[in-house]
Amino acid sequence: MKTAQRKLQRYEDKKDQSANTPKSKTDKLIKQSGLIPETVPEIRKKLLFGECLASEITVAKCAQESKSKLKEVVHRVASGRIIKKYRLKQLLEKKTTLNRRKSMLSKSVTAERKRRLENLQKHVNEEVEQFLNRDSKQR
What we know:
The protein is mostly helical.
């Protein structure tokens, strides 16, 4: 009896693991909601689109794991004002493994330099220069 239970458990685990493709995830979600996938083609298409998009974002992020500038581009494209407006940041993180706290509101694909940091550096450089010039005049 225990052997049969283990076999059944392994079979169910294997069945759950087979639902890794976007199409099977979509069909499983529709069936769990009590619908038949063939009767709701538009909903199925939109769900499939969302699953495919989430998979593509995950693959793109994993491909850029070591290159932080390119990974930032993936964050910029995937997250933004619309995701924040509809409160989907947590779902985005769950589906794509993107960090929701690193979401970028700017949609510029190229990385922008932080202007505040530049202004601070300029200010500090000017202050140091003034201090050194003042010190040389006093001597």
